[in-house]
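User: I'm putting together a small comparison set for a docking exercise, and I want a reference complex before I start. The sequence is below, and the ligand is copper (II) ion. Could you produce the 3D structure with the ligand included, as C-alpha cells?
Assistant: Of course. I'll restate your input first, then give the C-alpha cells for the complex.
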Amino acid sequence: MRRKGVLSVMRLRLISISALFFFATAVFAKDVYLSIGGSVGVFRADMRIFNPSSTKDIEVQATLLPVGNIDNSSRQSTTIMVPKRQMLDYDDVVTSLFNSSGLAAIRLSSSDDFVATERIYAQQGATSCNDNPGTLGQFVPGLDISAAKKQGVLIQLKKSDKYRTNIGAVNPNATAANVTWRLYDKNNALVGSVKTITYAPFGVQGPTSLTSFADNVPGNADFSDAWASFVSDQPILAYASVIDNATTDPTFIPMSEDTGVPPTQSGATTFNVTLQNFSITISPAPSTLKVGDQVIFHITVLESNHGFELDGPNGSAVIAGAIFSPGMIVDKTFTVPSQGTYNYFCTNSGCGAHTGMSGSFNVGNPTYDPGGPHY
Ligand SMILES: [Cu+2]
C-alpha cells in the first residue's frame, strides 16, 4: 500500500513536470500573421517586431506569402534574431527583409513570445518643391493563429461614388479552406448568390473589390453601407480596407468573430448534386421549382476532377462553371430567374469519364408575385 502510494506520488510529479514543460512552450509559442503588405509602385509596408523577454534573445522565423491564392506551403523562411527588450525596425519590410517585391502577407513564428505590427501606406508623389510629401496609410495588426475563425463578419463597409472597399483573406492552414461568403447591402439584404472561394494552403487573397464576394450582384445594389460574413471549414483571417475616393484616406477593418447562426435563407430548398464519372445526379429532382424560388445546390464531387455549370433558359450561367477536385463539397445558391429549360453539365473535357455528365430540368407555372414578400 505504502509503496504504491509513493509510486503514485512520483508518477504524479512526473506528470506535473511534463505538464509544466508543455505549458511553458505552448503558452509562448506564437504563429503570427500580418494579413497584407507589399512593395509595389508607391505602396510600402513597415514592420516592427518586439521581444518582451528581459532575459532572452529570441529567434523568429519570417515567411513571405505572396498574394494570388497560390499554395505557399513550400516557401522558405528567414530567421530574425530579436534581442531582449528590443524592437527591430523593418522599413519597407518586403524589400529589406525578404529582398522581394509585390503584395504579400507575412507569417512570423517562434517558440518564444513576441509582438509584431505593420503599417501599410502609399507614398505621396514627390514634387520639385517638396521632396518629402509624406505618406497615407493604415495599421495592420499582427494576428496570432488563434485569432483565425471559421465564422467571421466584416462590418462598416462602403462602396459608392464616395467610397470603395476591398476585402482580403489569409488561409493559415496547411490544407485548403473552403470559404462561403455572403454579402449584405444597406438594407441588410443578402445580395446576389452566395459565393464559395477555395483558398490554397497558406494562400493569400490580396485586396479584392467587395462585389467579388458574391455572384450575380445586380448593378443597382446599394452598398453605401454594407457588410460581409463568411463560413469556412478551416479557421481563416480576413480584413477589409475602406478607402475614401476623394482623399484616398484608408481605414483598416479587422474581421470580428460571427458567433451567430450562419444565415440560412428562409424558404431555400436544398438539392444534393453528385458529380461522379459518367453522371450527374440531382436529388430530389428539381421538377417542382418555380420562378423566384431560392435554391441551394449542395455539390459533392467524387472520383475525378469534375466541373459544374448550370445555364438558364436564355443560355447565361445561373451557376458559373468551375472545376472541383474529388472530395470537395461546395454550396451554390441561386434564385430561379425565369421559366424555361435549365441545362447543367460537367465543364471538364467532354470525353472519357466526363461523357454523359449533363442533364436538364424545366421550370414552369410561376407562382412568384413580384409585389409579394421579398426574397
Ligand atoms: Cu466531369
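Residues 306, 346, 348, 354, 357 surround copper (II) ion (CB under 6 Å). The first strand starts at residue 30 and ends at 39.
User: Thanks, that's exactly what I needed.
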